[in-house]
Design a protein that fits this description.
Shape of chain A: globular
Number of helices of chain A: 20
Distance between the termini of chain A: 43 Å
Strand content of chain B: 25-35%
Helix content of chain A: over 70%
Order of helices and strands of chain B: EEEHEEHEHHHEHEHEEHEHEEHEH
Helix content of chain B: 25-40%
Strand order of the largest sheet of chain A: 1-2
Number of domains of chain B: 2
Number of helices of chain B: 11
Distance between the termini of chain B: 41 Å
Strand order of the largest sheet of chain B: 6-7-8-3-9-10
Number of strands of chain A: 2
Order of helices and strands of chain A: HHHHHHHHHEEHHHHHHHHHHH
Largest sheet of chain A: 2 strands, antiparallel
Structural class of chain A: mainly alpha
Shape of chain B: globular
CATH architecture of the largest domain in chain B: 3-Layer(aba) Sandwich
Number of strands of chain B: 14
Oligomer: heterodimer
CATH superfamily of the largest domain in chain B: P-loop containing nucleotide triphosphate hydrolases
Chain lengths: 507, 325
């Protein structure tokens, strides 16, 4: 299968973007910029020398990463959008190009000019490396990190380009790239012994001198310059961050590419990011990162459980939303008699979401039980209750969104808006009444805002457990209500002749 | 015993329902295909006719595997489109109603790209590109950037893309849009040539006169429903129970309409400018000859007597008015 140089989509991009006149212009501009910056830095450092060389290498690599990540990210973000707008995308979809070929052609083809700019800036970086006596293995590793990191971001941008409307995709993508620039997982670094996942870290890596990893005393802050900056801790073992970054970039790129390949030649009305099984696999992949790099030693058992549930909240919610069925999909499943009957169909996507939330909730409990780092705050029953309420809460919200998405007109956005308004307003009112500040008040708020369960402590459970159980029961009841509503909506959608009647006068 | 030609395209109980954007006037859903059943024999030039919103483009896109039907099945060249879209697409050439080309590519690069994308044998591609450029009359533009081509040339290049891989089935959605009269004539000629090579052509157009000249069979759809389908002659002949005749005279002041209305076997007389009339005549050729002779004897200078046939336009208008509510 032609996925590499003979890939027609890649060749098309190379032909369109790398015309001789443009290539010459880019090369000249890069050369002039390299000379100007190099001269300026030499002047500042009192002439070329080791320090100048390493600094020049860092600057050149940072510029290359910038071009590749931000420039490449933006063009990837527009890669499919632009084709859809020009009505050329259908002509690609109707060819015999396999989804993987088309996806790879766009993944490497859309940012091909950026790769060329990186190539043009390479001499500057190599001069810096040579003069600065940088270790070749680190220079190579830095490029691997920068390129693989960029590829994973391009794959995500391509997925956004495929799935979202132009405005949303561009706005979301720019926001995402800004966050990336500001170092993602900055919050997670409080919980994880994991260094920066930003590809910009490559310029730091390029000037390192040793691959040695150092055990880190508990509580050490990550990235103290010259300290433990390049060491991550995976399941208690120190690992060089470059290795971790490469593995994670490859993993993320593979997951994003899988989603692109699954959808790129599909009818847009039938887009489905992952199959339910793949969605669960992605959830577990992320949880492997959470659990593997979690700073178990820093937190009490109850805090560790609450923090891991908290980290999983957004992830499970997003995957729940990704599993939602559209009206079009339900119609097709129904017409092909592939729609589960009765309550099972109406409970979609509860079985998969329940499996995911219970598993990501229960695995940390099992780990905490096994490693035995338990204290007076830990109680297995309360821990299991936390998992149950976490799961029921997400089921409630996702089932509500599924029902909204199946209503006439597909009201997912409105559903999300209502949900956000609900949480903001409830939070304001409960905060004003100081309900979060008292144990019984906290338990009461859980009826409406189950995230309160993250703050539940063993001492409070003893005399508020009835309210907490009522909160759990409330989530199940509300989830049941949305299942019932979804069942009615499904029945409406399945009525024979309804579509024709509803469409009269519309076509 | 006549042997039925093999089917190039088969639609079985095809349905497509979709939601209209929020805020759309009228209903919230539209039915683009409503239990369509159609069999298009290999070698036909088949016209799909209907008003805007009838579901023509959606049907064509489903045939090409670009849209998934809500229900039903599509078979092209014996391949189920939903089950094996890439194999089916290999035998289909598709031209959309509104499309762009890659302006930053050269003409030959564009055809070369699609030839590779359709998995043609690499050693045949250069020759095929040259051949198609010849068929399209674009040899002189081989190395030109697409951005610099005229509208008509771009349309021809779009057709070139659709035929570059020598597909057995051509699906053309409003291919004559934007073409000048000369371009339309050339396009009709091209379709005939392609059909002469054994290709099945499925075509939609609002230019019904063009379709009448090109098509061997047609189907008329409205709101996703099939109103009529069959051989063009058969469709045009349906409902014609009486001979329609037009007579033109060069005698100002002669009351032709009144004169004809008094004759036996003549009904439905209407005036035709400048001086003439159109009417239904129940008799045969001999009775018609007698009628003309009588008219001349009555003092009218007759310079034209011609039979009036049904046009596709009239048939479509007649069928679509209020047939689906």
């Amino acid at each position: 299968m032609s996925v590499a140089p003979a890939n027609p989509e890649l060749i098309r991009n190379i032909r369109a973007q790398l015309r001789a006149d443009r290539v010459v212009t880019v090369a000249v501009v890069c050369a002039v910029l390299s000379l100007a910056v190099g001269y300026s830095m030499a002047y500042t450092h009192g002439g070329p020398g080791r320090v100048w060389g390493l600094e020049f290498l860092r600057v050149a690599l940072a510029a290359q990463t910038f071009v590749l990540v931000l420039g490449g990210g933006l063009v990837s973000l527009l890669a499919v959008q632009r084709e859809k707008e020009m009505n050329t995308f259908d002509f690609q979809r109707v060819t015999r190009l396999r989804p993987l070929e088309l996806a790879l052609g766009k993944l490497f083809g859309a940012p091909v000019l950026m790769y060329f700019i990186v190539l043009c800036l390479m001499p500057a970086a190599l001069v810096g490396a040579a003069v600065g006596h940088a270790r070749p293995t680190f220079v190579v590793a830095a490029y691997v990190v920068a390129v693989l990191g960029a590829i994973s971001i391009h794959a995500l941008a391509l997925l956004l380009s495929l799935l979202l409307e132009r405005g949303v995709a561009v706005a979301g993508g720019v926001l995402f790239l800004i966050v990336l620039w500001l170092n993602p997982l900055v919050a997670a670094r409080f919980w994880l012994d994991l260094g920066s996942l930003s590809p910009f870290y490559a310029s730091d890596l390029s000037t390192q001198m040793t691959w040695a990893v150092m055990s880190r005393p508990p509580g050490t802050i990550i990235y103290v310059p010259g300290g433990y900056g390049m060491t991550d801790v995976l399941f208690g073992w120190p690992v060089h961050h470059a290795v971790v970054a490469v593995a994670l970039y490859a993993g993320f790129a593979a997951w994003f590419l899988l989603a692109v390949v699954r959808n790129i030649k599909r009818d847009p009305a039938g887009y489905e990011i992952f199959t339910p099984a793949q969605a669960l696999g992605f959830l577990f992949f992320i949880n492997l990162i959470f659990i593997g790099f979690f700073r178990w030693s820093r937190w009490s058992a109850a805090e560790a459980q609450a923090d891991l549930l908290g980290l999983n909240t957004t992830l499970c919610f997003v995957l729940g939303v990704a599993l939602l069925r559209t009206r079009d999909r339900v119609r097709r499943l129904d017409a092909r008699r592939r729609l589960s009957s009765g309550w099972l169909a109406a409970a979609w996507p509860a079985p998969y979401l329940a499996a995911g939330t219970l598993l990501v909730g229960l695995v940390p409990v099992a780990i905490l039980q096994v490693i035995g780092k338990l204290d007076g705050e830990w109680d297995l029953g309360v821990a299991l209750f936390r998992v149950a309420l976490f799961s029921a809460w997400l089921l409630r919200d996702v089932l509500y969104l599924q029902w909204m998405n199946l209503r006439l007109g597909g009201r997912l956005r409105l559903g999300l808006l209502y949900l956000a308004v609900f949480y903001i307003c409830t939070g304001i009112v409960f905060g004003t009444l100081n309900l979060f500040g008292t144990p019984s008040g906290l338990a009461f708020t859980a009826v409406f805002m189950p995230p309160a369960v993250f703050a539940l402590r063993l001492g409070e459970w003893a005399y508020t457990w009835e309210v907490w159980l009522a909160a759990l029961g409330a989530q199940i009841l509300i989830a049941g209500l949305f299942v019932s509503l979804q069942r009615r909506t499904l029945a409406d959608l399945s009525l024979p002749g309804r579509a024709s009647a509803a469409a009269a006068g519309a076509a | 015993m006549s042997v039925e030609a093999p089917a190039a395209i088969v639609l079985e109980n095809l349905s497509k329902v979709y939601d209209l954007p929020p805020g759309s006037a009228g209903a919230a859903q539209a039915v683009a295909a409503d239990n369509l059943n159609l069999r298009i024999a290999a070698g036909e030039v088949f016209g799909l006719v209907g008003p805007n919103g009838a579901g023509k483009t959606t049907t064509l896109k489903m045939i090409c595997g670009l849209l998934v039907p809500t229900a039903g099945r599509i078979v092209v060249n014996g391949i189920d489109v939903e089950r094996d879209p890439e194999a089916a697409q290999g035998g289909i050439g598709y031209l959309a109603d509104f499309f762009s080309l890659y302006d930053d590519l050269k003409v030959w690069e564009y055809l070369d790209y699609f030839a590779h994308a359709y998995k043609m044998a690499p050693e045949t591609i250069a020759g095929r590109v040259t051949e198609v450029l010849g068929v399209l009359g674009l040899e002189g533009k081989r190395g030109a950037f697409i951005g610099g081509l005229s509208r008509g040339m771009k349309q021809r290049l779009g057709i070139g893309r659709a035929i570059i891989h020598d597909p057995q089935v051509l699906v053309l959605d409003e291919p004559a849009v934007g073409l000048d009269p000369k371009g339309r004539i050339e396009f009709r000629q091209l379709v005939r040539e392609l059909n002469g090579q054994g290709k099945t052509v499925l075509i939609t157009s609002h230019l019904l006169h063009d379709l009448e000249e090109m098509c061997t069979s047609i189907a008329i759809i409205e709101r996703g429903r099939l109103l009529r389908s069959g051989r063009l002659g058969q469709i045009l002949g349906e409902g014609v129970r009486e001979r329609r005749v037009r007579i033109m005279i060069a005698s100002p002041g002669f009351a032709l309409v009144e004169w004809l209305s008094r004759r036996e076997g003549v009904t439905g007389v209407t005036g035709v400018a400048p001086i003439g009339a159109q009417f239904s005549f129940a008799g045969g050729e001999a009775e018609l000859a007698s009628l003309v002779k009588a008219l001349v004897v009555a003092g009218a200078s007759v310079y034209a007597v011609e039979p009036v046939g049904e046009t596709l336009e009239k048939v479509v208008m007649g069928l679509s008015r209020g047939e689906v509510t």
